[in-house]
Structures are given as structure tokens and as C-alpha cells.
Specification:
Keywords: Membrane, Transmembrane, Transmembrane helix. This protein is of the alpha+beta class. 36% of the residues lie in helices and 28% in strands. The relative contact order is 0.12.
Length: 359
């Protein structure tokens, strides 16, 4: 009987530790683990680890008292639990180290040789009379690239699963953040701010555990050849791929991301409702959230309707397009508003279920 009790105890501890590691890494989303469970574990990770360490101590006590496992086997079991602790807390930021503080920028001519023909999409940010260009190819590993301008710190965040860049002021009211990759839910990244003990869903860029939200700035989607012609003096972010694992990660995700962006193919992780059929779920929309209402604009409609004006929850907006590049402007001020450029409609509606559509 003692052997049965001990083995059940050991198996339960092992299963719990492994589940926590799976929960906070990509396999958890393959199992459709609820978003609230991911956030709940992160918010209380210290408590869960202490409880598991107490259970591990109990296992050692029983093993010694009942003469079950030898100390070598118990030590291996202990190392296994500690590895799951590392995996749940550090596996994602280790695989995808953000460049909030270490991003490097090059001139257009220098960057040109680092933009692959296979992925020419870039995101252009115009702030404080300077232009920065962020190639999708180079932001998909670090997920965050930061810079400072006129005493304000900014960053572009990018989620490859959602195909979504977001440009924000990094200080959102809690002091200087340190954004790292926590995991993802509903095919969209979740960042952890390790300086301020909160989490941020990338598509909303709002703190999950406080009432703070980032200030979001516009970016403009275009192709590299267009961008380098329009902005020859721009600064271009280039991720140097300094680690051997970087190329491995790019190769590993190349085909899955192609499927993620292909109409008719399933999303990588089965966590989306996909009940809104007003557009194809893979449509790469221009989404806009003004805090009171949201709208998803079909890209073909946007590119064919330069000057189209409409109202969203009291805000007058107008589409500006040359048939290729699309910007959404506030019709009263003429200023560009921050759109979610290229995000998949099926992911957009997961977070903004009451969205309006324009198609």
C-alpha cells in the first residue's frame, strides 16, 4: 500500500509540474488551454512553485521514511521539477529575446542586403520628424524592438501568429517596463512586464492586472522597395540573428506561418471561435479601435476607396490610399490614427466580437 501511495503521489507531482510547463509554452495552446488559466498561473507563479516545492519536500520525506527511491533517483526527480519551473518562466523569453533596449538600426543602403526576397513586408513609423522602418522578417524573432526619441521611449511589438505590429510608448504609467514574451492565447502574443509584474495582450496593449494602457501610435504597412524609395533617409531595424537557434527558429516556423497566412488553411492553434463569417477569417484587415468601438476594413475596399469617409462612435474618419498603401485618418485633424495593419480577421473578432466591418 505504501508503494502505491508513494507512486501516486510522485505521479501527481510530476503531472502537475509538467502541466504548468506546458501551460506556459506553445504546447499549451495546442491543447486549447484557456487564456485565463495562462494569466492566472503567471500572476500566481510564485505561489504555485512554492506549493510544488513543498510537495517535493514531502516526497523526499516519504521516500526516506518508507525506503522507496534511492537518493540518486530522487535527485533526478527534483531536477525534473526545477526544469519545469525554468520552462514555465524562462523558455519563451529565452527562445525569443526582446530588443526593447538593444535594437540596432541601419541606414537604408546597409539594410537593403538584409531584407530577404521571401518577405518584403515592412512597417513604417513616422514620429517626431524621423522615420523608422521595421521589416517583418526582422521583428518576428525578438517580437519587440525599442528606441528613444525626444526623451520618450517607444517600441514596436509584433506577433507573427496574428501578423500584427503595434507601436507604443513603453511607459504606460507604472514606470519603465521590461517587456518579455510570456506566451500566447488565441493566436496572439502575451507579454510580461517583469519590472511591473503585469501582463499585456499584444492586440490590445493594455495591462491585464491594472487599469493602465499604452499609448499606441500609427504605423504604415508597405513593401520594402516602396519604403526605401519613399524614405531614403530612414533608420531600419535589423535583427542580427546572433544565435545559432535563430535560424533554426525561422526554419521551424516558416511553413506553419505560411499556412497561418493562407486562406483555406487552419490556424496553427485551435483556440479561436471563428463564428463571425462576414469576412474570410484569414483576411488581413485594417482594424481600428478608438476605445468606444472597433471596425475591420477589408483591404481591397480600403485600397479601392481613397477618400471614403465614415463615422465610428462619433469619430469622423477617412481612408487615404494610392491603391497600394493605406492609411486611416481622423477627418477633422487630418492625422493618421493607429490601425491594426494586416491582422487576421478571425483573430481580430476573437478580441473585438462586436466589431463593425467595412467591405
Amino acid at each position: 500500500m505504501k508503494k502505491i501511495i508513494f507512486n501516486v503521489y510522485a505521479a501527481t507531482l510530476a503531472a502537475t509540474a509538467i502541466f504548468c510547463a506546458v501551460l506556459m509554452t506553445e504546447p499549451g495552446q495546442s491543447l486549447n488551454v484557456p487564456r485565463d488559466m495562462v494569466l492566472g498561473y503567471y500572476q500566481n507563479a510564485g505561489l504555485y512553485m512554492v506549493l510544488q516545492l513543498m510537495a517535493l519536500g514531502g516526497l523526499w520525506l516519504l521516500s526516506e521514511k518508507w525506503g522507496m527511491w534511492n537518493r540518486k533517483l530522487m535527485s533526478l526527480a527534483s531536477v525534473g521539477v526545477l526544469i519545469t519551473f525554468w520552462a514555465s518562466s524562462y523558455a519563451m523569453p529565452t527562445a525569443f529575446p526582446t530588443e526593447q533596449f538593444t535594437a540596432e538600426f541601419f541606414n537604408v543602403d546597409e539594410a537593403d542586403q538584409h531584407i530577404p526576397d521571401s518577405d518584403q513586408r515592412v512597417y513604417v513609423v513616422e514620429l517626431n520628424d524621423e522615420v523608422r522602418i521595421f521589416p517583418r522578417y526582422h521583428v518576428q524573432i525578438p517580437h519587440v524592438a525599442g528606441w528613444e526619441s525626444e526623451n520618450t521611449e517607444y517600441a514596436i511589438t509584433f506577433c507573427g501568429l496574428s501578423n500584427l505590429p503595434m507601436v507604443v510608448e513603453t511607459d504606460y504609467g507604472l514606470g519603465q517596463p521590461n517587456l518579455q514574451v510570456l506566451g500566447q492565447a488565441h493566436n496572439n502574443l502575451i507579454f510580461k512586464d517583469v519590472n511591473n509584474d503585469t501582463a499585456i495582450q499584444q492586440i490590445t496593449m493594455q495591462s491585464e492586472f491594472t487599469d493602465h494602457a499604452t499609448t499606441v501610435h500609427p504605423n504604415t504597412l508597405m513593401e520594402w522597395d516602396t519604403a526605401k524609395s519613399m524614405y531614403p533617409d530612414a533608420k531600419v531595424f535589423v535583427y542580427g540573428m546572433p544565435r545559432m537557434i535563430d535560424k533554426l527558429l525561422l526554419d521551424l516556423f516558416e511553413e506553419p506561418l505560411k499556412m497561418q497566412r493562407t486562406q483555406g488553411e487552419k490556424f496553427i492553434f485551435p483556440t479561436l471561435d471563428l463564428t463571425d463569417t462576414r469576412m474570410d477569417v484569414k483576411t488581413e484587415i485594417f482594424g481600428y479601435d478608438n476605445g468606444r468601438a472597433q471596425i475591420a476594413i477589408d483591404p481591397e475596399f480600403a485600397r479601392a476607396n481613397d477618400g471614403y469617409q465614415f463615422t465610428l462612435a462619433g469619430e469622423s474618419l477617412v481612408i487615404e490610399s494610392d491603391g497600394d498603401i493605406v492609411r486611416l485618418l481622423n477627418a477633422d485633424t487630418g492625422l493618421q490614427v493607429p490601425t491594426h495593419n494586416g491582422v487576421h480577421y478571425g483573430i481580430w473578432t476573437q478580441f473585438f466580437a462586436t466589431t463593425h466591418v467595412l467591405l
